[in-house]
Known about the structure:
The complex is a heterodimer of chains A (321) and B (265). Chain A is of the alpha/beta class.
Amino acid sequence: MPIVLIVAEQQPDGNLRKATLNAITAGRTLAEKAGAEVHVVLLSKDPSKVSEELKGLGVKAVHTAGAPELEHYLAEVYTPVIAGLAQELKADYVGMASTAMSKDLMPRVAARLKAAMASDVMAFNGSGADVTFTRPMWAGNVFAEVKLTTPVKAFTVRATEFPAAQGGLPAAEVKAFTPKLEASKTKFVDFKEVKSARPELTEARVVVSGGRGTKGDFKEIEALADQLGAAVGASRAVCDAGWVPNDLQVGQTGKVVAPQLYIAAGISGAIQHLAGMKSSKTIVAINKDPEAPIFQVADYGLVADLFKVLPELRQALRSLE
Amino acid sequence: MKILVTAKRVEDPESKIKVKPDGSGIVQEGLKYKINPFDEIAVEEGLRLVAKHTGEVVVVSIGGKEVQEQLRHALAMGAHRAVWVNHTGPLDQLGIAGLLQKVAEKEKPDLVVLGKQSIDDDQNQVGQYLAEFLGWSQATFASKVESLESEQEKNKAPALLVAADNKTVRVVREVDNGLTTLECSLPAVVTTDLRLNMPRYASLPGIMKAKSKPIEELTPEKLAVDVTPKIQVLKMSSPPPRKAGIKVPDVAALVDKLRNEAKVV
């Protein structure tokens, strides 16, 4: 039976990155169409805790490799291990959720496997050996249906397009394997975490984003976000200006989000920003300029000064409780 | 140092992209073309590196003769010479990386710096494929700690820190939840993120000088690379339009809609 191998991602704090759950659903969707089974691979310094979580997600097998060299992710260290396992299993598809790690890793794994790759896949079409991939181009202004003609096919999936896999299914077999380690020409130096008590942008139910209209003052954005239990986002312009960390950037070149509610305050709505948020379920735009392009994608637009209406909005929402 | 940088020709990021009715591609009429913005950042970083360490910036582009415009632009910014891989017709990321591999083996640069993705295909793959094909160290999504309004940026200092012995480079990378720093042995492949630098404008003397700088012409045949695409684009379509929204007069009306219509608060 053909095999879809999904690469799980462990966060620096040791927990499973939630987008992996969406990637497993994507893997199962692909497997149904391709008549394949889903395997998962996890590389870690200590895979025991996360592999427990992975095995109840409705996959055929969980392959784990544990070694001190795998503590800090490096493309050159992880590539031979994952490609080696894919070759041993004779996997037909190798995929992962679209994250900073997979964007760095998966093309290198694909190169090792002489595989063509589709990035940010949103849907799988067709069946059997003729499965095709739908993916965005030109910042999401075009959806392309692509076919990969190499024997092994690699992909990343846009996590927001697939629901998270639920646990509690019959436990898959966990198979530990010895990683094929190669010397790396790259050394890990350090990781500086941007700590936040707010939810992760790509996982939040509500996102409140600020743009140039904030003039760099994010207090109102943050206050509303905290009241709603939301993540804070930003347009590229305010990240470039250094007003907020780039980690908050929503857009073609930043994070792609699709929350239940997206509130854009003081954001004009450049094409590249819209590409990162226009799949949100409900979009609210607040901007002083009635001609701002953000109003074209907003379900509810309010032409107003954000510094005046955000406090009012907080007050009104509080009175609902 | 010798730095190889790329200059892909892409549609102006501000242009409105429309799909042809038959789904065979995008409507080309009326579009303007530019260097891929991420590649422009790569050219800029290359120029800053040789300004600090001395050396040469070689810019490469792949495409029909129209890509000479983008090469001339990079030369006008200050790149020393150009390599043009003359190829028309479809080309996928494997093909691009295969051609760049041969150019890199010929040029033997200390660093290849290229955009993390091009704004047409949005694949984000070529640098990583190239690093693996060459067996080199890779650092993707290079960024910097300082803001684009910092002194360091005003002084046009490179963000990539090459060691005094020219054997390694330190790269700060943008990753989920923070920044990570890697030390790569040279030669290495680095891909650029948006916050690495602000590219310079081409000056008038730069534009004049660029006219006499050499462009070497190569082809996939000369480089012995089979560029038959392994990624076939079967069909393009426009994303489903969002249903038209409404303007609300005030906060009370907004909250009412959010509560009773969208049911999200």
